[in-house]
Automatic annotation (TrEMBL):
<dbReference type="GO" id="GO:0046872">
    <property type="term" value="F:metal ion binding"/>
</dbReference>
<feature type="binding site">
    <location>
        <position position="220"/>
    </location>
    <ligand>
        <name>Zn(2+) 1</name>
    </ligand>
</feature>
<feature type="binding site">
    <location>
        <position position="257"/>
    </location>
    <ligand>
        <name>Zn(2+) 1</name>
    </ligand>
</feature>
<keyword id="KW-0140">cGMP</keyword>
<comment type="function">
    <text>Specifically hydrolyzes the second messenger cGMP, which is a key regulator of many important physiological processes. Highly specific: compared to other members of the cyclic nucleotide phosphodiesterase family, has the highest affinity and selectivity for cGMP. Specifically regulates natriuretic-peptide-dependent cGMP signaling in heart, acting as a regulator of cardiac hypertrophy in myocytes and muscle. Does not regulate nitric oxide-dependent cGMP in heart.</text>
</comment>
<feature type="binding site">
    <location>
        <position position="354"/>
    </location>
    <ligand>
        <name>Zn(2+) 1</name>
    </ligand>
</feature>
<feature type="binding site">
    <location>
        <begin position="216"/>
        <end position="220"/>
    </location>
    <ligand>
        <name>AMP</name>
    </ligand>
</feature>
<feature type="binding site">
    <location>
        <position position="405"/>
    </location>
    <ligand>
        <name>AMP</name>
    </ligand>
</feature>
<feature type="active site" description="Proton donor">
    <location>
        <position position="216"/>
    </location>
</feature>
<feature type="binding site">
    <location>
        <position position="354"/>
    </location>
    <ligand>
        <name>AMP</name>
    </ligand>
</feature>
<dbReference type="GO" id="GO:0007165">
    <property type="term" value="P:signal transduction"/>
</dbReference>
<comment type="pathway">
    <text>Purine metabolism; 3',5'-cyclic GMP degradation; GMP from 3',5'-cyclic GMP: step 1/1.</text>
</comment>
<protein>
    <recommendedName>
        <fullName>Phosphodiesterase</fullName>
        <ecNumber>3.1.4.-</ecNumber>
    </recommendedName>
</protein>
<keyword id="KW-0378">Hydrolase</keyword>
<feature type="binding site">
    <location>
        <position position="256"/>
    </location>
    <ligand>
        <name>Zn(2+) 1</name>
    </ligand>
</feature>
<dbReference type="InterPro" id="IPR036971">
    <property type="entry name" value="PDEase_catalytic_dom_sf"/>
</dbReference>
<dbReference type="InterPro" id="IPR023088">
    <property type="entry name" value="PDEase"/>
</dbReference>
């Protein structure tokens, strides 16, 4: 312990416990104070200086109202200098931020103008807001989810599970609700802990990013997705594949033609933009969005995303022979526990769904042939106007419905579906037989067209002889 007699500190163990308040004469200098503390506390010089310089409070005996607090002056000056330098640096950085903000504003305006100019080539693809020339935000055009929740009838639910479902008379909002129902019915929403509202938003974003072209539009997306859903039920794939596999199949079907330009791989522009990837695959951002409504670990999501892209790439008809041959070698000894076998099956399934229009009744399928031919003619007209060679199957002066469909059905569709039928015999009646009927239908039409052409030739020859 210690006691204070107003001038000195007495410590029993000769250690300095804390600074004390002492009265000194007006003429006492700081050096005298230091020496006094050193001698009284029996400390080393360096330790004494350190502790004495921390806090020393003293006053003049003649004017006790005036108290002076002594600090480490040199350290205080250094601290003030450093803080001043920091403030100056901060002012400089804030000035740079102002410049960067202005630059960002200009970049955003340029990007917004570019997006608005590109929007003309899309259907139902508005930005969330309209912007005026001065960049001020106006009222929202729409928010998501903007489509109502339809209550599907039991009749519609049962029809939706069949590959023969008629998709022609459904509005976009109704198709969105049907797609939403498919994800719920297959157990994907529960399995991946999806937020239902975010699922609605994502599906609406999908619809908005399909272009308005004759064939590869949102209605085609729905046709392929519904056909996939129908094949899952028809082939009892829920019992053979995992829910992750079903989610990959459905999401690949939904996304497979996103942002499709309407031209195939032979068009030079497509080759230049997509290089070795088919034009079907303009969707990396959309697939990334999938993870926002699915509770999937990042590493698992990477694998799922790559699996979806693999299926989308499989829809490129340039790879048709390669994929079908691979499946033919596996189908006789197919193993559902073999990952390579399952991946090959999924690739064939999405190919079947993508080109399955002829599975529907003729009155439903034939309008899609018109859309497909219009797509071909649109590309051939553009190629011709640019002085590029035109593929024979796209030449509007040479192609007819029968000539376009007979070869495709005979040499592409039927062989592929009959190969799948080896693994799933139940598709023969509902899917394979309609393809055979469609082939026969177009062969009959071709015979009629050939007869009409021959008749015209005969009439022309006859008229030519009379003129002579």
């Amino acid at each position: 312990m210690y006691k204070n007699d107003d001038k000195y500190i007495h410590n029993t163990d000769n250690t300095l416990i804390c600074p004390a308040q002492v009265l000194f004469s007006r003429h006492c200098s700081p050096c005298d104070i230091k020496e006094l503390y050193v001698s009284e506390c029996a400390l080393t010089g360096s330790r004494a200086v350190q502790q004495v310089m921390d806090v020393v409070v003293f006053s003049w005996t003649e004017d006790e109202s005036l108290m002076v607090l002594a600090f480490r002056i040199n350290e205080l000056k250094t601290e003030v200098t450093n803080r001043l330098a920091m403030l100056e640096k901060r002012v400089e950085l804030e000035g740079l931020k102002v410049v960067e903000i202005e630059k960002c504003k200009n970049d955003l305006k340029k990007l917004r103008d570019e997006m608005m100019s590109r929007a003309e080539g899309r259907v139902n693809c508005p930005c969330k807001y309209n912007f005026s020339d001065d960049g001020k935000k106006l009222t929202p055009r729409c928010d998501v989810p903007s489509y109502p929740k339809y209550t599907l009838s039991q009749e519609t639910i049962e029809a939706l599970k069949k590959p023969t479902f008629d998709v022609c008379h459904w509005e976009h909002n109704e198709m969105l609700s049907c797609l939403e129902y498919m994800y719920h019915d297959l157990g994907l929403v529960k399995e991946f802990n999806m937020n239902p509202i975010t699922l609605k938003r994502w599906l609406l974003g999908i619809q908005e990013n399909y272009r308005s072209n004759p064939f590869h539009n949102f209605r085609h997306c729905f046709c392929v997705s519904q056909m996939m859903y129908g094949m899952i039920h028809l082939c009892n794939l829920q019992e053979k594949l995992t829910l992750t596999d079903l989610g990959i199949l459905m999401t690949a079907a939904v996304c497979h033609d996103l942002d499709h330009s309407g031209y195939n791989n032979t068009y030079p522009y497509v080759c230049a933009v997509y290089l070795k990837s088919p034009l079907h695959c303009g969707l990396p951002d959309t697939l990334t969005e999938c993870n926002k409504f699915a509770n999937v670990e990042p590493e698992a999501f990477k694998q799922i995303r790559q699996a979806i892209i693999t299926l989308i790439l499989a829809t490129d008809m340039a790879r048709h022979g390669e994929i079908l041959d691979s499946f033919k070698h596996k189908v006789d000894n197919f193993d559902f526990t073999n990952e390579e076998h399952v991946t090959c099956l999924k690739m064939v399934l999405i190919k079947c769904c993508d080109i399955s229009n002829e599975v529907w009744p003729t009155e439903v399928a034939e309008p899609w042939v018109d859309c497909l031919l219009e797509k071909y003619f649109m590309q051939s007209d553009k190629e011709e106007s640019e002085g590029l060679p035109v593929a024979p199957f796209m030449d509007r002066d040479k192609v007819t419905k029968p000539t376009a469909q007979i070869g495709f059905i005979k040499f592409v569709l039927i062989p592929m579906f009959e190969t799948v039928m080896k693994l799933f015999p139940q598709i023969e009646e509902i899917m394979v037989q309609p393809l055979r009927d469609s082939r026969d239908h177009y062969e009959e039409l071709k015979q009629i067209d050939d007869a009409m052409t021959e008749k015209k030739k005969t009439e022309n020859i006859s008229l030519g002889g009379k003129k002579k």
